[in-house]
Each structure stands twice: as C-alpha cells, then as structure tokens.
Specification:
alpha+beta; single chain; five-stranded antiparallel sheet; elongated
Length: 117
C-alpha cells in the first residue's frame, strides 16, 4: 500500500485501530550487510549475525594484560572482543565475503530485527 492509502484508512478509522506490519523477504533489516543472500561460496538459507573472534583488539588487550599480570594476561585471548559480520549455515560460519571462518559456536550471535524509535 502507498503512504496515501494508509493515511486515508487511518484517517477514516473509528474506535480501536490495530496495525500489523510485515517486512517483505527481499527487504534487508537495518544492520545487516547489503547482500541478504548468502555470500560467496556459502549455501543459501542461513542467517546473518555477528562473530566474536580474536583479532587486533583482543591481541592488544592481551599485550596490556601481559604487561600488568605477566603470563596470566594471556588468558584474555580466550575471551575475544573483536566482532565481524558473519553468515551461518549448516553449522559453518562465513565472513561477509564468503570465506569460511569457523564452526558455528556460541561466538556467533544471529542478528535480531529491532524496531527503532
């Protein structure tokens, strides 16, 4: 429906009005990579999300931890803090360009559609 048709319906409504909205499958939710389909070599039918991984930020934190606490500071590497957009399908996680990254674990969090106000 167009905006004008919706305004006309709302303007003539009497009493309680319930609005039910649905996002068409081809519309990309906010925060999702522009390509909603599977990236590169991944199969379709998966979900986009965020993958925690041990990258530059985690390594920097581990170095600081080592300077402060010596070898126990390396435990920081077990708690990655870097994030990337990722795509999971069939228990495998791929980055946004389609390269295989890891098996799907708790480090992968599916993106949720959220309404912004």
């Amino acid at each position: 429906m167009s905006h004008d048709e919706i305004r006309a319906i709302i303007g003539t409504a009497v009493g309680a009005l319930t609005i039910v909205a649905a996002v068409p499958a081809h519309v990309v939710p906010a925060g999702t990579p522009a390509n909603q389909d599977a990236p590169g070599g991944a199969k379709t039918g998966g979900t986009w999300g965020t993958l925690l991984y041990s990258g530059p930020e985690t390594q920097r934190n581990a170095c600081i931890g080592c300077l402060c606490c010596c070898l126990p500071g390396l435990c920081i590497l077990a708690c990655p803090s870097d994030k990337m957009d990722a795509y999971a399908v069939d228990g495998k996680v791929y980055d946004a360009s389609g390269r295989y990254k890891a098996a799907q674990t708790s480090a992968f969090t599916p993106k949720q559609q959220a309404m912004q106000r």
